[in-house]
């Protein structure tokens, strides 16, 4: 921390000054946390009544099965769909034929620019309008919306991944007489997939967070469970803390998995970077 | 499409709220993000760790949960966080507690991504630049102002653009929590006019796409203007 692009190695006077700053900021941080905790205590948020559902087996089961499992399932199905969608349109965007390239470009840019909530509302009311029961309708509306959005983002990831394979590879493949399809399936894709896997896992974090947007229609998974717990116990703050913490833990596990895969299979290379929507090229990381 | 054209004033007002949410949250999250990144890359390790924890926790939390917290939870603990003290009316726009809760949630969420974008900009400056600046005798302020920060700001424009585009799209979450912005308006149209759902969706989608294109155009212009050589 002491050396780097911003600061020179500190001398004795600076170290002494930093020590004072450290103490002052430590006191400030601890005071802020203590104030929040005291306020929570003062408002009675730590009473056992309010935390009871999270120690009751029946509720824990509901949170894990109707909540976490459904949420994970939605994110997983959406990512599978998104990978297929992304493969089709990502490769389509690389096509030599403008007739294929332009529609693919249009579809990808469209779904990257439209908010997921709009897609969910549309899928819920227009695409799956007649579906029964309500929970299945919500499920598929959220899954389809997330598939379209994440698929469009992954299409860009796939395109970047295929472009990241050294040019000599495809040139060599063409030189030994392979056809375009063969070059793509036998040479480019197998090498690109390796670079893309961490990006796909990171996208799963985005998909998982976005499953919470199902709240706009009927809600499903963890948010739905939260909605049924707090009217009963009047424990909004504990419920939100617990449900939020579950998302954070799962996302951290996924991030850790992505980093592990990155180290194990890709090596020191940087994570694939994709430009912002509406921008030709550029090195922006995938949008949150 | 007819519904949208007939009720164009409602649609325009809804997108007005979207733009207002975006602009206010963008400015505030830029401020908070800058403070966070100063803590994050600064020499005081306590602040650096505190900022890192904040960023990690908040950016792994779904935005809906943060909105829920300010809608249902925060007001029960801190009275001021009910935001009932906010009551501003400008023209036909009302900025009340729902709007404020939306701005606060969006700001807290987006500032994490702003912090990370700025940090990636700082990390993009080669170490040799700062070393050379120190070697010719520039003081700390000079190193920062004339060598490191100009390059860091330039490098963070593309990730910041992505962040703000995401913020623009995230304003739609406020529609679920009481602000009648574009997504909420679209939902009520979709509910009321069943036969025109496709047209309504397309119209609102195009509205968002235009806004996203404007943000990305501004980013491209800035990037081009600040590019060296």
CATH architectural name of the largest domain in chain A: Orthogonal Bundle
The greatest interface between two protein chains, and residues involved on each side, is:
A-B, 64 and 73 residues
Average per-residue pLDDT of chain B, rounded, comes to 90
Instruction: Please tally the helical runs of chain A, counting DSSP H or I stretches of 4 or more residues.
Output: 10
Q: How far is the first residue's CA from the last residue's CA of chain A?
A: 27 Å
Description:
Chain A is mainly alpha-helical and 288 residues long. Chain A has two domains: 1-43; 54-266, MetI-like (MetI-like fold, Orthogonal Bundle). Chain A contains ten helices and no strands. Chain A has helices at 12-42, 48-51, 57-93, 98-113, 116-127, 134-164, 167-175, 180-210, 222-233, 236-266. The longest helix of chain A is centred in the N-terminal third of the chain and has 37 residues, at 57-93. Chain A is flat, with a radius of gyration of 24 Å. Chain A starts with 11 loop residues before the first helix and ends in a 22-residue tail after the last helix. Chain B is an all-alpha fold. Chain B has one domain (2-226): MetI-like fold. Helix content of chain B is 77%, strand content 3%. A two-stranded antiparallel ribbon of chain B has the order 1-2. In chain B, strand 1 (88-90) and strand 2 (93-95) form a beta hairpin. Chain B is globular. The mean pLDDT of chain B is 90. At the A-B interface, helix 1, helix 4, helix 5, helix 8 and helix 9 of A face helix 3, helix 4, helix 5, helix 6 and helix 7 of B.
């Amino acid at each position: 921390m002491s050396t780097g692009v911003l600061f020179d190695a500190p001398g004795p006077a600076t170290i002494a000054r930093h020590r004072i700053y450290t103490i002052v900021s430590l006191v400030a941080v601890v005071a802020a946390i203590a104030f929040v905790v005291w306020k929570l205590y003062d408002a009675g948020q730590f009473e056992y009544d309010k935390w009871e559902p999270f120690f009751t087996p029946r509720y824990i089961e509901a949170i894990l099965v109707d909540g976490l499992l459904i949420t994970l399932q939605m994110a997983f199905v959406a990512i599978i769909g998104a990978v297929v969608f992304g493969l089709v349109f990502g490769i389509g965007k690389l096509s030599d034929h403008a007739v294929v390239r332009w529609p693919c470009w249009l579809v990808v840019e469209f779904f990257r620019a439209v908010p997921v909530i709009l897609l969910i509302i549309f899928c819920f009311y227009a695409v799956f309008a007649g579906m029964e029961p309500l929970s299945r309708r919500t499920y598929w509306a959220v899954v389809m919306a997330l598939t379209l959005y994440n698929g469009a983002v992954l299409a860009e990831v796939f395109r970047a991944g295929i472009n990241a394979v050294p040019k000599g590879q495809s040139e060599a493949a063409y030189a030994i007489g392979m056809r375009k399809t063969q070059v793509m399936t036998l040479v480019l894709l197998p090498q690109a997939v390796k670079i893309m896997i961490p990006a796909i896992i990171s996208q799963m974090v985005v998909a998982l967070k976005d499953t919470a947007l199902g709240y706009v229609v009927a809600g499903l998974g963890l948010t739905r469970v939260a909605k049924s717990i707090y009217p009963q116990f009047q424990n909004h703050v504990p419920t939100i803390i617990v449900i939020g913490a579950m998302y954070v833990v799962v996302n951290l596990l996924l991030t850790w998995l992505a980093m592990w895969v990155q180290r194990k299979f890709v090596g020191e290379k940087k994570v694939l970077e994709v430009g912002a929507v509406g921008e030709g090229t550029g090195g922006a990381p995938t949008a949150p | 499409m007819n519904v949208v054209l007939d009720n164009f004033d409602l649609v325009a007002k809804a997108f007005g709220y979207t733009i207002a949410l975006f602009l206010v949250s963008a400015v505030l999250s830029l401020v908070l993000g800058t403070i966070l990144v100063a803590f994050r890359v600064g020499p005081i390790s306590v602040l650096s760790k505190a900022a890192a924890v904040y960023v990690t926790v908040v950016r792994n939390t779904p935005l809906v949960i943060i909105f829920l917290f300010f809608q249902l939870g925060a007001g029960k603990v801190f009275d001021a966080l009910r935001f009932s003290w906010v009551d501003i009316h400008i023209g036909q726009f009302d900025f009340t507690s729902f709007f404020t809760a939306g701005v606060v949630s969006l700001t807290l969420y987006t500032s994490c991504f702003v912090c990370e974008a700025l940090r990636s900009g700082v990390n993009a400056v080669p170490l040799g630049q700062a070393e050379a600046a120190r070697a010719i005798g520039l003081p700390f302020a000079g190193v920062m102002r004339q060598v490191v920060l100009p390059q860091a700001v330039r490098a963070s424009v593309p990730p910041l653009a992505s962040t703000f585009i995401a913020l623009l799209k995230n304003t739609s979450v406020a529609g679920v929590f009481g602000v009648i912005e574009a997504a909420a308006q679209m939902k009520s149209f979709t509910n009321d006019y069943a036969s025109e759902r496709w047209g309504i969706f397309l119209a609102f989608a195009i509205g968002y796409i235009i806004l996203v294109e404007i943000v990305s155009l501004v980013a491209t212009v800035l990037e081009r203007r600040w590019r060296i050589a």
